[in-house]
Design goal:
The chain is built from one helix and nine strands. It is mainly β and 162 residues long. It folds into two domains: 2-12 and 23-124, no CATH class; 134-162. Strands 1, 4, 5, 6, 7, 8 and 9 form a seven-stranded antiparallel beta sheet that branches. It has a two-stranded antiparallel ribbon with strand order 2-3. The longest helix is centred in the middle third of the chain and has 9 residues, at 98-106.
């Protein structure tokens, strides 16, 4: 969500008496555009681990969320930084210790330990039924064929019913 505010300052016309008539100076406008928004940034951290949640082989994906103030669409300062780790194997999300996250943000070499992580959302490995089924092949041409077919769509050979 982005919230931008436009502040407009008016300098009212000042009238002076010069010569025979009244003279008015022009009106001056000044516009300031600023806003507060939040963002997510993926940090550069590459390390493969065995996941403590699912036991799978995956890697840590480290993210930083923050809120920032922008002035004329240019970010001026950031606050409320929080660091998260998402596992690539099962999608579990952990909150990362702030000190460790700041070191990663600065580019320092850091190892993330189990005690640096707090579980926020448990993920689960997504398996499809096809991962456990045997592949059906045509006895004539050896092509991989779906279970729905009675005949091979490639060579026309009748398929075995299992």
């Amino acid at each position: 969500m982005i919230l931008y505010t436009c502040i407009r300052f008016f300098r009212t016309g000042i009238q002076t008496s010069e010569g025979l008539g009244m003279r008015q100076r022009g009106r001056r406008n000044m516009i300031f555009i600023g806003g507060i928004s939040s963002a997510v940034k993926q940090l550069n951290y590459l390390k493969t681990v065995i996941c403590s949640r699912c036991g799978g082989y995956g890697r840590y994906q480290v993210f930083m969320t923050y809120t920032y103030f922008s002035f004329f669409f240019i970010p001026v300062f950031k606050w409320n930084r929080q660091f998260y780790v998402k596992m690539s194997c099962c999608g579990s999300v952990f909150e990362l210790d702030r000190e460790v996250g700041m070191k990663i943000l600065r580019g320092e070499s850091v190892d993330i330990r189990e005690e640096d992580l707090t579980l926020i959302k448990a993920g689960g490995r997504s398996f499809e039924l096809s991962d456990f089924e045997e592949e059906r092949t045509c006895p004539g041409c050896g092509a991989s064929v779906s279970e729905d077919y009675s005949y091979c769509p490639y060579c026309g050979e009748p398929l075995d019913r299992r």
